[in-house]
Amino acid sequence: MSIFIQILLNSLETGGVYALASLGIILIFRTSNTTNYAQGSISMFNAFIATYILMGTGLPAFAVAILAMLSAFLVGVLVDRIVISRAQKVNPVSKQIITLGLIMIFLGLAPMLFGTDPLQFPRFIYGAHTIMGANISYNAILNIIIGIVIMIFLFLMLQKSKWGLAVRATASNDIVARMMGIPTPLITMGSWAIAASLGTLAALMIAPTSSVNLSMMDGVQIIALLACVLGGFQTFYGPVVAAYIIGFASNFISFYISSVWSDSILYVLILITILFKPNGLFGKKIVKKV
Amino acid sequence: MRKRENKLIQVYKSKKPYSDYILFGILLVALPILVDIGLLKYSYLTTIASILIYSIVALGLNLLVGYSGLISLGTAGFMGLGTYLAAFLTKDLNLPFEISLTISVLVPMVIGILTGLVSLRIEGYYLAIATLAISEILRKIFVEFEVVTNGFSGKQASYPTLLGFLDLGRNGTFILIVVFLIGIMILTYNLINSYTGRALSTMRGSEAAAQAMGINIFKYRLLAFAIAVAYSALGGVLYMHFVKYTYPNAWTLTLSLNILAVIIIGGVRSIPGTVLGAFVVFGIPDLILKRLPLIGDIDGAAYIFNGVLIILTILFYPLGLIHIGKDLKKLRFKLRKRKESYSEQA
């Protein structure tokens, strides 16, 4: 029983990281209609910035995290203003390649500015607690809570606020939204900025265990993309739920079946699922007109 | 009176794309000789060989992305599978190069056809990421299946031996790669100008229309996948025998995206464009940037250059760099016309 709870808590933590990253990807997908492969690289870059601020100023980790999210916000705005907003007429495949170009730019900038050595980022708080025989660090609890709180906050904003309405309108039909007086370029810019911040938070959550290095977000990026596929690209909540499902599944598979092959088994399961539900678990079928 | 042309030029002109490809091949074959004389550095030859290998792989992907409109992010995985199979078959089982080549292309092809089966159900972004998952599974196998793949430390092979007695050295292997590339270029040209190519193009335009015209979507999608994967595996085999070393981290998403970039930069649906794109994406950083005095010393400059180039090409030159010659000609024509009209006015 205690092992079960241990796995459950671990899954909540990893699921939260995946969910933050995939929420960023789906926000960008819905508003600017491209899958953002550069999400992970942007987060990695800002995690480096965070570590540098930490080493330079000695501020506490959570203050640094907020600063890093602000810098990520800025990076997101810049990326949208300089590149994405100019690429509206580009066809979908090329748009995806643009985000590949972004990956290369960030992969090149990071070693240029911060060197190639992996850096350490501390936990937000230290110490551990035992719940029903399961050992969990305070940091993990904090991560779980931050993840869930941010998610709930964003979904409330999406459903209730004027900003959320604008995002949903842009997502459902860009042209009509613009006709209704919604500043769609601003909304798209906001999505890029928020997505970058969310990704950076996810990066800082896994940073203590993985160290800050160039490939720290590669695994998260792939799982976040898979979560979007599993949950379906048509809703905002689908990928988030799918990310938690993937978090649980990967932890349970690695404990009960095989820790070595857990990722592969997970990918196969996801592939089989999409074979049966081609639009994702929560997606709606799109009727094609001939 | 028209000037009588040389017979050779006549033949050259009448067999236009083929003769261009073969001429290109002859130029490439001359490169090892230049190295032997000492006019060209050895490292250039290695880079050019890998560019040619990536061109083969990109040609396959161009067929898939450009002609049939399906996206695949699994290229790197299949290429890696080709390298490992080639290494295992020639080194561990001591099979001759020809048999190893056949098996290492056929096995990934079967997996490619299975992927094609997946593509019948899902499309677009879903398909891209599904192929990414397949590639990641393959990479995991490279890491974990240590008996065959030797894990993270990687696997080695040697230059190929043709027909059991012809030991190819470095130059021989280079020429082999060139021969394969030219063969693949001609094959691809024929393929896209055949019934199959037209069927694929129709499918990209509208699936419903294609079906109404009696094109079997099932068959042609699987075919497109099979060809693309076979080209990647072939690229992998050649890579293995030229670079002689393979390890799991060479076959990541970055490589798949790079090969996609080759197509977009060079020109979708263009064979010479693909080769040009490979030279730009894989060649310019290695051949030019790293040798420049100041920029070459900075870590990551090559990466940034490539990234900026990709973005600029897509934003300002979406058809691909191969069309730049035609556009320049048009521009010159326009300028001349304008000049003439000015002089008429004056």
Describe this structure in words.
The complex is a heterodimer of chains A (290) and B (346). In chain A, 73% of the residues lie in helices and 3% in strands. Chain A has 290 residues and is mainly alpha-helical. Chain A has one domain (2-218, 247-258). In chain A, helix 1 (2-32) crosses helix 6 (162-172) and helix 2 (39-57) packs parallel to helix 4 (92-114). The mean pLDDT of chain A is 87. Chain B has one domain: ABC transporter involved in vitamin B12 uptake, BtuC, CATH 1.10.3470. Helix content of chain B is 75%, strand content 2%. Chain B has helices at 7-14, 16-37, 42-67, 75-92, 97-119, 124-144, 146-149, 170-192, 195-205, 207-212, 217-243, 253-266, 271-288, 301-316, 324-345, and strands spanning 155-156, 161-162, 166-167, 245-246. In chain B, strands 1-4 form a two-stranded antiparallel ribbon. Chain B has a two-stranded antiparallel ribbon with strand order 2-3. In chain B, a hairpin with a 3-residue loop joins strand 2 (161-162) and strand 3 (166-167). In chain B, helix 3 (42-67) runs antiparallel to helix 13 (271-288) and helix 4 (75-92) crosses helix 11. The model of chain B has no long low-confidence stretch (mean pLDDT 84). Classes of the chains: A mainly alpha (290), B mainly alpha (346).
Salient structural properties:
heterodimer; A: 290 residues; mainly alpha; two-stranded antiparallel ribbon; 11 helices; 2 strands; 3% strand; B: 346 residues; ABC transporter involved in vitamin B12 uptake, BtuC; 15 helices; 4 strands; 75% helix; 2% strand; globular
Number of strands of chain A: 2
Radius of gyration of chain B: 22 Å
If helices are DSSP runs of H or I spanning 4 or more residues, what is the number of helices of chain A? 11
Question: What fraction of the residues of chain B are assigned to beta strands by DSSP?
Answer: under 5%
Rg on CA atoms of chain A, Å: 19 Å
Which structural class fits the helix and strand makeup of chain B?
mainly alpha
Mean pLDDT level of chain A: 87
Which residues of chain A sit in consecutive blocks of at least 5 with pLDDT less than 50? none
What gap, in angstroms, lies between the N and C termini of chain A? 55 Å
Helix content of chain B: over 70%
The assembly state of the depicted protein chains is heterodimer
Task: Give the overall average pLDDT of chain B.
Answer: 84
